[in-house]
Design goal:
- The two termini are about 15 Å apart.
- Helix 1 runs antiparallel to helix 2.
- The chain is built from two helices and three strands; from the N terminus they run αβββα.
- Helix content is about 50%, strand content about 15%.
- It has a three-stranded antiparallel beta sheet.
- It is of the alpha+beta class.
- The C terminus is likely disordered.
- The protein has a domain of about 70 residues: Ybab, Chain: A (2-Layer Sandwich), CATH 3.30.1310.10.
- A hairpin with a 4-residue loop joins strand 2 and strand 3.
């Protein structure tokens, strides 16, 4: 493989990575806690887009439970986003390990 081919491969991978980032930004993933009482939605990059709370779970005397449910839902949604990112990264890299180690460098 000559340097020109290597550069072309690099540009192609950059284009694929840019497209992957756009796709992840547009993707929405949700997770629930408390039997669906709290739902968190994140984009494919793990940024929280919204939280939905069933009014029946709002108890002023037990705010700690509500906080725990919100945290659990957000954490699970972010975990799903991380898994989606890893899957997209594997597809974009053709299964190459990251960070990539190029032979001879």
């Amino acid at each position: 493989m000559d340097m020109k081919q290597l550069m072309q491969m690099g540009r192609k991978m950059q284009d694929q990575m840019a497209q992957m980032q756009e796709d992840l930004e547009a993707r929405e993933l949700s997770a629930s806690a408390g039997g669906g009482m709290v739902t968190a939605t994140v984009n494919g990059k793990g940024h929280v887009q919204g939280v939905s709370i069933d009014p029946t779970v709002v108890d002023p005397s037990d705010v700690e439970m509500l906080e725990d449910l919100v945290l659990a839902a957000v954490s699970e949604a972010q975990k799903k986003a991380a898994e989606a990112y890893e899957a997209e990264l594997k597809k974009a890299s053709g299964g190459l390990p990251f960070p990539m180690k190029l032979p001879g460098f």
